[in-house]
Amino acid sequence: xxxxxxxxxxxxxxxxxxxxxxxxxxxxxxxxxxxxxxxxxxxxxxxxxxxxxxxxxxxxxxxxxxxxxxxxxxxxxxxxxxxxxxxxxxxxxxxxxxxxxxxxxxxxxxxxxxxxxxxxxxxxxxxxxxxxxxxxxxxxxxxxxxxxxxxxxxxxxxxxxxxxxxxxxxxxxxxxxxxxxxxxxxxxxxxxxxxxxxxxxxxxxxxxxxxxxxxxxxxxxxxxxxxxxxxxxxxxxxxxxxxxxxxxxxxxxxxxxxxxxxxxxxxxxxxxxxxxxxxxxxxxxxxxxxxxxxxxxxxxxxxxxxxxxxxxxxxxxxxxxxxxxxxxxxxxxxx
Length: 335
Hints:
- By secondary structure, this protein is an alpha/beta fold.
- It is built from 11 helices and 10 strands.
- A hairpin with a 2-residue loop joins strand 7 (140-147) and strand 8.
- Helix 2 packs parallel to helix 3, helix 5 runs parallel beside helix 7 and helix 8 (234-260) runs parallel beside helix 9.
């Protein structure tokens, strides 16, 4: 079975071709970083307009790379939400149109489910049940995953998502957009112990997250230095900030595994490509004898392949989209 996956939830336009559920024939991603960089963040109107320009060429490139044509497609899988409504509508409307014109089924899937199942794009795959930590620009959440369509939300951010905090701190330090890679590159040259930043652990057994406090602490530190006429050591601030965020992500994940008495952890989302997080999570999971699954970095960021796989699994479980379906801005997955 050949599945076309389409992803337009935010600022990346992506299309992928999946053969059955094991072989990715092509994945094409068009980034909008250069468009949004002057604004220090994503401008929704610009994002949706760019998706409209890119969607057909990106699908055509994916088909060409897979040496296929539209007539070879058996199923269209597309992100239905969460995300920017304008961006979502471009991909979702395109998928509906393909489904109608080609007389093939389509499936709208939750973007978070794509990240949760992204580990299945690799050779070594997890078995159910497992804990999934999803960390991105818009989401930081822990799920228990009992099957391809069975998710339980265990904890989520109460304010800023981790990726959002990275972007805001990068903007504060004048490092540009996107903030995650910029902070990671600076952190390599800094000492995380040179600046003590808070960690929001919340209640003892809480699996929720909060990153607004560490973001505010960085802002206060920078403001104090500037009032004194002292230079801000960006490398040290980035190293300390990255360490503070990573500590919470790692320990909350370990806590979730212990509370649920599970031994398998999966990472997903754009921030899961962060080297510091991947390294520290590998160390802690080794200490706790936990089986860790880290998708390749290209499969952590928003991509059509994870949407294709997720849609195929939904379809195999009897889920089929209708032309009356609509997009949604917020996920209710596992609640």
